[in-house]
Amino acid sequence: MQEMSGKAWASRVDGRFHGCGHDGHTTTLLYAAEYLARTRQFNGTLQLIFQPAEELLYGGRVMLEDGLFDQFPCDAIFGLHNMPGQPLGRIGLHDGAMMASSDTLHIEVKGVGGHGAVPEHTVDATLVACHITLALQSIVSRNITPFEPAVVTVGSIQAGHAPNIINDKVLMKLTVRTLNEQVRETVLQRIHDIAVAQAESFNASAALTHVNGSPVLRNDPAANEMVRTVATALFGEAQVGEVKPFMGSEDFAFMLERNPNGCYFTIGAGDEADRCMVHNPGYDFNDALLLKGAALWCALTEHYLR
């Protein structure tokens, strides 16, 4: 993604920039580290986790596989993310399932290619992919209760280039989001069944690959209450509130799955009309959050390890 914030400090690397605020999150944690190391007003051991590859949704999993909590044991874990659209500095909390699971799937459709003028001698993989795309949209409306959120999005269909060629192969890429692990399993199974059956009905084939996935992010109510207490004392009651769960995903969920004694919360980046959401070309981290976030980390540490 190309940065278009217009800021003097905008990325000079084509197609790459800090579009989610992880540079700001890192700085916030370093601010807290400097203060806590200097003052030492807590009893115990504090582990600061600087996790890579969050945008790929497997950095947390890889750290766990590498023995993160074996080498650095944690009684409780906490994570924070800036959130444009929420009032500046406002802490957002939600008990239980707060962020969706995420699964990336590839579907390779294979048919029989040929010239566009003689379709009767072909099996049109593009046509098959279109039927699969339409059929997948029935999963949420017909296989999942309306009381459970789920999203199936086909974000990419890669076929041929020439207008007069019927393609023998198409690659579909899609994402699945749910807030319930049982719903997640159902959706993934239905995607497989629908893709294979639709392809077979056209004398084509469909092969599915599960590229990566992360679980539902679930917050412990007791950990949430601790953050609520600390944040209220620090910022005031008006600056702490409930937020609705959302279908974005976060691989901190792997860490909470391993150690459920913890929570993940948001800090408002401002709700001005021109404040861009993350993953937007115009996004720019609000530096006014740096000290607010650091202050909360310090207060939370001193409260938990008092």
TrEMBL record:
Keywords: Hydrolase. The keyword Transmembrane helix does not apply. SUPFAM superfamilies: Bacterial exopeptidase dimerisation domain, Zn-dependent exopeptidases. Gene3D superfamilies: 3.30.70.360, Zn peptidases. It comes from Klebsiella michiganensis. Pfam families: M20_dimer, Peptidase_M20. Residues 104-199 form the Peptidase M20 dimerisation domain. This is Amidohydrolase.
